[in-house]
Amino acid sequence: MNLKEENSINLAWLAKRIKSLRSESGLTQLQFLHETNIHIGRIEQGKRDISFTTLCKICDYFKISLEDFFANERLHKKNHNS
């Protein structure tokens, strides 16, 4: 797998994870925007990467640690590489 493919897979995982957190909280993208000033529409589509500070703000908003955010990522990589 080349770097571009790996980046696409990682962005897709990130998008799915953020969308899952938002959906589980019962928030719309517009509500999330109003409460955080973070526009996540393109992030959730996997079309936009985010900065570390934005990821930290998202984790703070959902009251989870970065470790919790990435907990399922290890399983994703393990299953994807199998």
List keywords for this structure.
single chain; 82 residues; 434 Repressor (Amino-terminal Domain); 0% strand; HTH cro/C1-type domain-containing protein; Lambda_DNA-bd_dom_sf; DNA binding; Cro/C1-type_HTH
Q: Please indicate the percent range of residues in DSSP E strands (runs of 2 or more).
A: under 5%
Fold-level CATH name: 434 Repressor (Amino-terminal Domain)
- The CATH architecture comes to Orthogonal Bundle
What top-tier CATH class fits best?
A: Mainly Alpha
Mean pLDDT: 89
Query: Structural class, judged by helices and strands?
Result: mainly alpha
**First-residue to last-residue Cα separation:** 13 Å
Provide the number of structural domains: 1
Largest sheet: none
Runs with pLDDT <50, length 5+? none
Q: How many β strands by DSSP?
A: 0
Walk me through the structure.
- The chain has 82 residues and is an all-alpha fold.
- It has one domain (3-81): Orthogonal Bundle (434 Repressor (Amino-terminal Domain)), CATH 1.10.260.40.
- The protein is built from five helices and no strands.
- The chain has helices spanning 3-24, 29-36, 41-44, 52-61, 66-81.
- InterPro entries: Cro/C1-type_HTH, Lambda_DNA-bd_dom_sf.
- This is HTH cro/C1-type domain-containing protein.
- It holds the Pfam family HTH_3.
